[in-house]
Structure prediction request, 127 residues.
Amino acid sequence: MTRTASSISFHPEHVFPTEEGQLSVDVMENERDVIICAAIAGIKPEEIEIHLSHDMVTIRGKRSHQQEQVSATYHFQECFWGSFSRSVILPSSIRPDEAEAVFKNGILTLTLPKAVSESRVPIRIET
Prediction:
């Protein structure tokens, strides 16, 4: 099917609802836990929101830019300022009520204990 420009409805607010940065994370696991680490400089621990479910984690926050010289010319501007978030689908089911979050030296470390799920399927033997 070919669409012409006049037949395509474009609503920028649906494509990019807000300018929000994506937080970089490291996700790893061992036998007991899923561990997520994120470097989040320039923010206080109480300004970080963490939402957990059995299979997903979302981290949100907002970095405020302390602009000192308004008339300055930027040669590089690579640091993201403003709202950021990251949702990660977890590699294993977790127990959210036992999760631990530590924020030290600008590094957020989430330790998410894995849910022990053992299911057995009985085998029926026909003779």
